[in-house]
Specification:
mainly alpha, 2 domains, 4 helices, 0% strand
């Protein structure tokens, strides 16, 4: 089961790593005492690659990815229930999620347009 993180911003990874250290999540990791296996592709910052690998192993996702999953699920529901009385409030709610998502995504090209009934 994926853990949910409700943080964002430049320091959220540092906060998550610190919390994991405090809980002892880094004790007895596979490969303890061995050299790190960092990619040598010349494109990836070694510190970023290591942080991403630690977050992946701990099943922690950035908030914007969690929001993306919620948005997709809501849009699927809206497409299948256009005549449902809950359609208008759920459309408004998904647009609030989209607005939050658009503020958090790392690049502009990942932003989503707000949902409109005629597009569903």
């Amino acid at each position: 089961m994926e853990k949910r993180v409700k943080r964002s911003g430049p320091d959220w990874i540092s906060e998550v790593v610190r919390e994991m250290e405090e809980r002892g999540d880094f004790r007895d990791l596979p490969g303890k005492g061995k050299p790190l296996d960092l990619p040598d592709d010349g494109l990836t910052d070694p510190a970023e690659a290591m942080a991403n690998r630690l977050l992946k192993q701990a099943d922690i996702l950035p908030e914007w990815i969690e929001l993306q999953k919620q948005i997709r699920a809501e849009l699927n529901w809206l497409r299948q229930h256009r005549a449902d009385p809950d359609f208008p409030p759920r459309l408004a709610a998904v647009n609030k999620l989209i607005d939050r998502y658009n503020l958090l995504v790392p690049t502009v090209n990942l932003q989503l347009p707000r949902a409109r009934p005629e597009w569903l």
